[in-house]
# Entry
Amino acid sequence: MADAPLQHPDADKLTGMEHEKQYDFQLPEKYFYKSEKGLNARVIEKISYFKGEPQWMLDFRLKALDIAIKKGAPKWGPDLSGLDFDDIYFYIRPQEKQGTTKSWDDIPEEVRNTYQRLGIPEAEQKVLAGVGAQYESEMVYHNLKEEWEKQGVIFLDTDTGLKEHPEIFKEYFATVVPPEDNYYAAVNSAVWSGGSFVYVPAGVEVDVPLQAYFLLNAQQIGQFERTLIIVEPGAKAHYIEGCTAPTYDSDSFHSGVIEIIAKENSNVRYSTIQNWSHNVYNLVTQRAMVYDNASMGWLDGNLGSKVTMKYPSCYLVGPGAHGEVLSIAFAGDGQHQDAGAKVIHAAPNTTSSVVSKSISKGEGTSSYRGLVQIHEGATNAKSNVECDALLLDETSKTNTYPYIEINEKSAHVGHEATVSKLNEEQIFYLQSRGLAEDEAMALIVRGFLEPVAKELPLEYAVELNRLIELEMEGSVG
# Structure
């Protein structure tokens, strides 16, 4: 991400086992407040108290806790038996002062040093519309170009959005992903903290990306950001986030919720490159409501974590709405990437496209889990799904779980899935042209991912290639 916000600054110089040191940036844990372990009403009341929230939000949180308890954890998908809520801190406040600062120099030094190692100051010096940074449970740094502020664009952390724009916030919050939706959405609703609040007025085109970074530093922490993006009719915006965490022996838990409202004739893109270390359970709900003739695009990259469950969704609820999901997953030793997409066609003349690329190495497992649903009355709906998996060796695994439900005779739906291994002839040819075997393998992998990577801005595509190279190290032999 933008000149290494997701990896150690010297990652491109690392070789062999040294690449694992990209996560060795943890700092001493010095926090203003750290909750007791476990999920209960006391923790939730503390969160709401520290944030100075209105009563309706505390009531919402407590109701969400009840919903989570009643629902219970899902019984399908990857193995989550190692995720112990009783051993997790659900809220950590890094500093006493609530809210964010616009000056990089005003945030705590230890936080600033960590982000400097991740490259954020360099990213901020580029031509960015805005940057927000979340450390543990709170957003600590935020900046937005004045030109966008003058046009009414709002880019705040979610807690400040609730305080400064309560009418907009309450109108849209939890309307796209309510607590009842799934167990982890309910958990997030109970303990959410931080995230981004974005509002783009009608007709305003933000032509450079809004960016956010999320960092876990503490051991056994849960991070539960809540991002809410509202793009009014005819407006345009691209939001990009990156996520990372250092390596510890104990597991951590990340469960975000992203809600997007793309109104009539708007154009919205959401890109994320997540490089969590291999001790993080990454369980996220991402969904967009897409209205008349609007376009919504998800670009979802997952290269880290112990277990990922993430299925970006487009609900095409207006005539002519378009949804697109481009997905990358890389599963190395001990990883299970369960990713995919959901597209719901609920209006006439809607279109969608899903392209999923997964790579498995060693004892890693990648899974595509997708849903295409076309409602009755969604006439002339068109959808196409492509799932391509690449196995790097004899021990890696890949799965595909497509589900297609068509209730409209005029629909046009296509689905294609392929599984392939590294081509030995290609590797031999590239070696004959002077490349080492590991370089040849990395080049083939980059070519495999190219249809998705080309949709990223140049600096992000470069960063993705660096991360792929790091994951590829040790693949030979």
